[in-house]
Design a protein that fits this description.
12 helices, 8-stranded mixed sheet, 418 residues, alpha/beta, 28% helix
């Protein structure tokens, strides 16, 4: 009888800490499939993904699911996306992409290559004012333009300079972003790899943009009721991604952030099966890639008072294989951070937790600046990280190594509270 009791207690402990890797993989693969077109805005992929997550949460057995609507203004590129360099066709998403706030552009343009060794801002503006340089695309390394942004910002404005736009070089793999897509500047700005544009004299471009006003998005919020309702834990991840770059290219976002979203879904399933002491909220945010818009809206219009949140766990990009886990912790969360270290050490989950400085880089930030105890968990710099914000972040390049230890870290933190 004593042995049987030990076995039953052991099985109960395993159930309490059980993660569901097959379910995690299914959700990641589904969200990163072509059906959702990168979970972006131009073709409604993000809305389809949100409805899928609503069904997944309900299937997981949660007590309630709420859709929290909000709107954004966002620039998109759903149409033509073509570029040639001295007659050679370049590949969208591989050789070039668009700055998120760029307008569309069509035509053939001479290329003006910046001399960064002998650079002089006034001399550059004077040279670009010469008739022979009118209508050119100015080409320069992105980080150099950032260093001299007072000069190069003038090259983005009509009336400041006669150039047609900018070609910003970025080492491969070329990236695509959405963070500042709530506006459109005067002139086109194209990201391009140095190899694709080196010594090129002219480029031909055909790019169409579409600016969406008051585009409707929604956060998906699931709740598992605990035995107590005076406090709660919150698990978050963003389910949106970059969407499309033209008609043929989309960004699957398997690691970023189908992986974090899938982890939150399986955590909801876990706590629906193992009734917790406190209420649990599981929030899939939209609009993260558009500058944390969904999480900011939630923080400004919370479904539960922020003061009742015991701890918030923001899970982003855990589809990788680095044995060291990166994290950021809010000021209010630092007093409990040693518990994460203790759980990690005792359960041998990661070789170490690498705590970085708090930054506005994911959905924990709107809560951190409002005094909520929270932690941001991300597995970066592994073999999948190189595909971040590229079309190659898909179900073939994502890694499954970090899911189980992340799951054990956050559930262990809750179970081992003081």
């Amino acid at each position: 009888m004593k042995k049987l009791l030990i076995i039953l207690l052991s099985l109960a402990a395993l159930e309490l800490n059980a993660q569901d890797l097959p379910h995690f993989k299914r959700v990641v693969k589904e969200l990163s499939s072509a059906r959702y077109q990168g979970r972006g805005y131009a073709r409604g992929g993000v809305g389809k993904a949100g409805k899928y997550l609503e069904k997944e949460f309900r299937k997981a057995g949660v007590d309630d699911v709420t859709l929290q609507p909000f709107t954004i203004d966002i620039n998109t590129f759903p149409g033509a996306m073509e570029m040639w360099a001295d007659g050679k066709k370049l590949r969208a998403g591989v050789d070039f992409s668009m700055r998120e706030y760029s307008p569309g552009v069509k035509g053939e343009f001479p290329v003006y290559h910046i001399d960064t060794v002998n650079f002089n801002g006034d001399a550059l503006l004077a040279d670009l004012a010469e008739p022979e340089n009118a209508g050119c695309l100015v080409c320069c390394d992105f980080w150099f333009t950032y260093k001299h942004r007072e000069v190069f910002s003038k090259l983005q404005k009509t009336g400041e300079c006669s150039n047609a736009g900018l070609l910003l070089t970025w080492a491969a793999p070329i990236k695509f972003f959405k963070a500042y897509g709530e506006k459109v500047v005067d002139k086109p700005i194209i990201w391009v790899t140095p190899e694709a544009i080196e010594n090129v004299k002219s480029v031909k471009v055909n790019v169409e943009n579409a600016f969406l006003n008051d585009y409707e998005l929604f956060n998906v919020i699931a709740k598992v009721e605990g035995r107590r309702h005076d406090s709660c834990y919150v698990f978050t991840a963003h389910y949106d991604h970059l969407g499309n770059l033209g008609r043929k290219v989309y960004y699957p976002g398997a690691n970023d952030n189908a992986s974090g979203t899938a982890a939150v879904v399986t955590l909801a399933e876990h706590y629906a099966k193992n009734r917790p002491e406190f209420d649990m909220y599981f929030v899939a945010f939209s609009g993260e890639d558009a500058n944390l818009r969904g999480s900011t809206f939630f923080a400004e219009h919370p479904l539960v008072p922020l003061s009742q949140i015991k701890y918030l766990f923001n899970i982003d990009m855990i589809g990788d294989d680095n044995p060291v886990l990166y994290c950021e912790v809010s000021d209010a969360g630092m007093s409990q951070y040693p518990r994460f270290v203790k759980v990690n050490r005792e359960q041998h989950l990661f070789e170490a937790l690498n705590r970085g400085s708090l930054a506005a880089n994911s959905d924990h930030y709107p809560f951190a600046v409002r005094g909520v105890p929270c932690i941001f968990l991300e597995n970066e710099e592994g073999s999948a990280f190189q595909h971040y914000h590229t079309p190659a972040d898909n179900s073939k390049t994502v890694r499954w190594d970090s899911y189980e230890p992340v799951f054990q870290l956050v559930t262990g933190f809750i179970e081992n509270r003081d």
